[in-house]
Design a protein that fits this description.
Layout: E1 3-7, H1 14-27, E2 31-34, H2 46-51, E3 56-61, H3 65-74, E4 80-85, H4 92-100, E5 112-114, E6 126-127, H5 137-141, E7 147-150, E8 153-156, H6 168-172, E9 178-179, H7 201-212, H8 221-239
Parallel strand pairs: 1-2, 1-3, 2-5, 3-4
Antiparallel strand pairs: 6-9, 7-8
């Protein structure tokens, strides 16, 4: 029996979220409604509610399916995960039918439960562990200590050190494994279906050379990063 997670987003989608919760409950699936999971604090007890769900989970959120799935897996959700984007959902009957095809029968005793928490806006990378090869290039590149290599494996150790709006490490990743779900200027960086960021070797080489150069003490390190981001953004526009 799958459980349905509906992660609240903005007021724009609240009516659709509520209608979907009712439709899922009527179809026989228990529903857990949460705050926006991307913005939820790492230590929030709501993650315990999420990881305590049965091994088959459907998440509906205002994120593309790939980052939504890997966000759950980062916090320990195992088993089958089906992700749906509330922003692009079609008729509720069609959604319920897709859930029926998830492979598990509904149950007779279901509930819609909503948990609440105060959440602030966050910005940090989500790693697609199927694509990540743990090469460590992002950890070497990042100026803010967001990443760490532990026992040869990459981890997002300090997510809230990430500079809001900066997607530079995603553009440098040779495997397209780094996702910034809220980035609006490039669907590949946001993890949109069918999109993969392919780094330009020449830009990567120039970026590393610039960051490895010792800047004068009077030059803020953020100026160097901002210049890099401008260069990478210009490259993306040329490719478009």
């Amino acid at each position: 029996m799958p459980s349905i997670i509906i992660a609240r987003s903005s007021q724009e989608y609240r009516a659709r979220e509520d209608a979907l919760a009712v439709a899922c409950a009527q179809a026989g699936w228990p529903v857990l409604m949460t705050p926006h999971l991307y913005h939820l604090a790492e230590a929030s007890p709501i993650w315990q509610d999420v990881t305590a769900l049965p091994p088959s989970v459907v998440i509906v959120s205002a994120l593309h399916p790939r980052p939504a799935e890997w966000l759950l897996r980062k916090h320990g959700v195992a088993g089958m995960v089906l992700a749906e984007d509330i922003r692009t959902l079609d008729a509720l009957d069609d959604v319920v039918e897709r859930l029926r095809q998830f492979g598990h029968p509904p149950c007779a005793d279901v509930t819609v439960r909503e948990v609440h928490a105060s959440v602030g806006q966050r910005w940090y990378p989500v790693i697609d562990s199927e694509r990540c090869r743990h090469c460590g290039q992002c950890a070497q590149f990042c100026l803010f200590g967001v990443y760490a290599m532990i026992d040869g494996r990459l981890t997002v150790r300090q997510p809230d050190r990430c500079k809001p709006g900066c997607p530079a490490c995603s553009r440098l990743c040779p495997h397209g494994a780094i996702i910034f779900p809220l980035y609006q200027d490039d669907p590949a960086i946001a993890g949109a279906p069918g999109c993969v960021m392919t780094p330009d070797p020449q830009v990567v080489a120039r970026a590393r050379t610039r960051l490895q150069a010792k800047a004068p003490v009077s030059t803020p390190v953020t100026d160097e990063l901002d210049a890099l981001i401008d260069e990478l953004d210009a490259l993306a526009q040329r490719k478009d």
